[in-house]
Amino acid sequence: MDAKDLGFCSKLVHGGALKDVFGSAVTPIYQTSTFGFESAKDGADRFAGSASGYIYTRIGNPTISALEQCVAGLEESVGAVATSSGMGAIATAYLALLRQGDHVVSTASVYGPTRILMEKHLSRFGVAATYVDTSNLEEVRGALRSETKMIYVETPSNPLMQVTDLRAVAGLARERGALLVVDSTFASPFLQKPLALGADVVLHSVTKFINGHADVVGGIIAARDTDVYRRLREMMVTMGCNMDPHQAYLVHRGLKTLALRIERAQRSALEIASWLESRPEVAWVRYIGLPSHPQHELARKQMAGFGSMISFEMKGGMEAGRQLMDSVKLAMLAVSLGGVETLIEHPASMTHAGVPRKEREAAGITDGLVRYSVGIEDVGDLIEDLRRALEGA
Ligand SMILES: *Cc1c(COP(=O)(O)O)cnc(C)c1O
Predict the structure, then answer these.
(1) Which of 97, 122, 135, 203 could form a disulfide bond with 221, CB atoms 3.0-4.6 angstroms apart?
(2) What is residue 263's predicted lDDT score, i.e. its pLDDT?
């Protein structure tokens, strides 16, 4: 069967599989920095690109290629580039695709370091950015300039799970001749296919859902167009933010169960979110799967499911939020998300503490906001854990 015709779960299990001489069932870890050439001519040909074969692990490695080919297939892209971290993927996209004088329109509530990279560093090289709520198309349209070369969207966004209409924003980008780059970390390729909706580049922190086991930091970028893909790969290789073979092996292993993990976690998330909405201690709940979510209908059209990220506001503000986090026993108090274990965190004092209070509040990140990443434990245990903690808080 042609790999392109396989269903998503078959691609998860078999995508990128490498046939080695021993017939090993999984791609081995090629823990090597360099690869021997068969002759001087072979070495020269590999460098020239006229012979196939690996050269040096920063440039490429079979274990890393296996993961890249698997994700490239899942994202319906021409190719994927694995990176040392999610930030490595974002830095690669910015540096490969932007130049002095360019302007970027970005989701305001992007991952904190993404915004810092643009505002503190890319700005020194003459790149400017405007931050808007990209879930509001008029704001995106209003921010576009003749120099706009990239629209950078994170959807669903963190921590309020705002959903941006990718098809519509892709249309705006195309009109302007700008590239649409999507950080799809919160959705994973199982729930969202930005390239099929018109985006040019999709990237992930594989640290989250793709690896899913809280034991690796990594990133990956995939492109729709061969020229864009080549620019991304060249930048990663030159900058040196490559993934390591052992890291790639673990991520590829974790990836195989992506659909199973998310199907279970999102079933639990819907139950937990509905239960939280009924609690007197909770002011409101943001979960994409609830009809109360402002972009619930859009998410239903654009995504294959609602995922496992919930945020909710405690009526008692910061103090109640802190008490809740100190009282839960099963959910682990930690940042990150998308793993098999349930995590809880407080955006205002943790992930978003670097954002000035005024901006934070304008973005809806209030002091009583709690972010909850649902894992694959028994949902009854998770609810009981929250119930005890809420009653104590
Ligand atoms: C975690 C995260 C990143 C950064 O990824 P790292 O692997 O930590 O470098 C980028 N974007 C989003 C949405 C994230 O959640």
Answers:
(1) 203
(2) 98
